[in-house]
Amino acid sequence: MLQIAICDDEQFYREKIEKLLRKFFRGRDLQYEICVFSSGKEFLEQCENNVRFDIVFLDINMEEMDGIRTAMHIRSFHSNTFIVFVTAFMDYALEGYKVNAVRYLMKDTLDLGMGECMTAILQKMEIAQVTFSFLEGERRLYTDNILYVESKGHKAIFYYMESEMVTYQIYDKLDAVERKLEGCGFLRLHKSYLVNMKHICRIGNYTASLDTGDELPVPRLRFQAVKEAYVAYKGEF
């Protein structure tokens, strides 16, 4: 289910954005949920909101906690949320780059801009998702939210970030999983671990440290190759 948040201190625009979103989804075979917040502070009061939502529409000019600061807080959790700024002024381009905002929507042209904005986001999401038939059932996962995959016994265990860390299991070899995730930024540490380089903070002392606090071992014989691959990825990224 697609999770969408609207954060605006003006009721008129909260209702208008929600109305336009529901109009956009009408006739589309997509499940979605919309949550509405009247301030950045209200949004951030629940810690899970930092990683819960796929898309967040943020009014830039809110009192107490504006949209820019709210977005920076979301990004500090390495969230892959698509952030859309809603504003009456185009004076915040630099701040938008800092938090990797996907779009700016002008308040006086919301009717014209919403369709294109949502279409572009859904296209990006389609590229960044992959489906596996797990023991828990078929799941469509965002590749950015896969932290790492561990081979244990005859199973591959996926460590996946939703509102909290969850695991999914599949009877398959890590080689097959690696082939399916090819081109998505994953690095084979050794025979037991395939890690998402987006979540690596540091590689040193024969260990890959992740942004979740997890540490995965890197064999001595593969350490140099792993480190070079990670450095190359960071340079391209």
- Strand fraction equals 25-35%
How far is it from the N-terminal to the C-terminal residue, by CA? Answer: 29 Å
Q: Sum up the overall morphology in one term.
A: elongated
Mean of residue pLDDT values:
87
Give me the Rg, rounded: 20 Å
Going by helix content, strand content and strand pairing, the class is alpha/beta
**Main beta sheet:** 5 strands, parallel
Residues in helix, %: 25-40%
Count of DSSP strands: 15
Regions with pLDDT < 50 over 5+ consecutive residues? none
* Major beta sheet, strand line-up: 2-1-3-4-5
Counted by DSSP, the helix tally is 8
SSE order, one letter for each helix or strand: EHEHHEHEHEHEEEEEHEEEEEH
List its traits.
alpha/beta; five-stranded parallel sheet; five-stranded antiparallel sheet; elongated
Quick synopsis:
The protein contains 8 helices and 15 strands. The chain has 237 residues and is of the alpha/beta class.
Write structural notes for this entry.
The chain has 237 residues and is α/β, with parallel strands linked by helices. It is 33% helix and 34% strand. The protein has eight helices and 15 strands. The strands form four sheets. A five-stranded parallel β-sheet has the order 2-1-3-4-5, sandwiched between helices. A five-stranded antiparallel β-sheet has the order 10-9-8-12-11, with helices on both faces. A three-stranded antiparallel β-sheet has the order 13-14-15, with no helix packed on it. Helix 1 (11-25) crosses helix 6 (110-127).
